[in-house]
Fold this protein.
Amino acid sequence: MATTQRDKLNKLYNHLTPGRPITSGDLAALGISADLAVHYVRAGWLERLARGVYCRPNDPPTLHSSIALLQRDFEGLHVGGKSALDWHGIRHYVSRRPVVHLYGWKSGRLPEWFTQRFPAAYHRKRLFEEDPAVLLHVRPFEDRIGAPLVSAPERALLEVLSEVGVRQPLQEARELVESSYSLRANVLRNLLKHCTNVKTVRLCLQLGRELSQPWAGKLNPSQLPKGSDKPWVSRSADGLLVLKP
């Protein structure tokens, strides 16, 4: 191998952290052309995951690094709902191989190289009045550099409640609310004030009161967007759901 190619390969390996996938754009930034990338793959120095996506051989991509990579292409992408609650330690039961729930702003499909390794579901949802570049109460997991973005527990619970009557069983959502006694009322209040879904607001208040959660008593319903004075009614596999204002 020419010295220049060897130097580029060493630079690449120094750049790649364990389990981190890399794109052809990243390779180009390191001075590695598409032709040279093909050469590295054929020589066994790189493994091709999909068109334009690579990793080190015998070093499969990790979940966190893979999600962080996807966030470049999916506007507003973050770990949310039940997955975010689980990451924060709020769960009803432990699944052997849980589905990773990812939320984003635009319609899209998760790439096969990702879903083949990690069971995942993508939800296109705009639940709050916010900027997709600065999502409300979404931060890197455990504030680590390079970690994937994840909803705070308060936002994650509202994301779960927004799916009730669609993909989310009411009983499971109720059990998650029952485990949410540690939620911060001020964060939840801020999110509810920016929530665009009346059902989510009403369901949060109703379940919080029914289960006597500490945060529920600190929320003033009159200051939250609950919609009209009429009941919100929906029929689903769980039966009839009636949410009073």
